[in-house]
Fold this sequence. Notes:
The protein is mostly helical. It has five helices and no strands.
Amino acid sequence: MVFQWLIVASIVGLVATSLVHSLGGEFYLLRPLFKHRGNRVLEHPLARMVLRFAWHVTSISWLVLAVILYALAFDEPHLRAAILGGIGLSFTAVGLFDLIASRGRHIAWPLLLLTGLFALAALNYG
């Protein structure tokens, strides 16, 4: 029982950190950073998209870790499915988003998408 409560506390911490990171970072870091002009890198729309994308993908990864911790604590028979499903779904979605948002110009979208698809394939065949 103590084990599960400790994991719940860790999950709450991950979810809270994810939300604060995404929302706080968007409002207090990214938007003010993008308002300033004169930086050649930040003037490029793809660079701005990639920076914002990478910032929020970090938060998504923390949510996937929270799902894995939940499965570890409460759903052990389905631990493999929770891990592969969480990674597969999130990376597939992130890869597709990156492909669409960058119009295929960001180098990472194929790797993100393939990571997700391979994890989903492993779930299917495992």
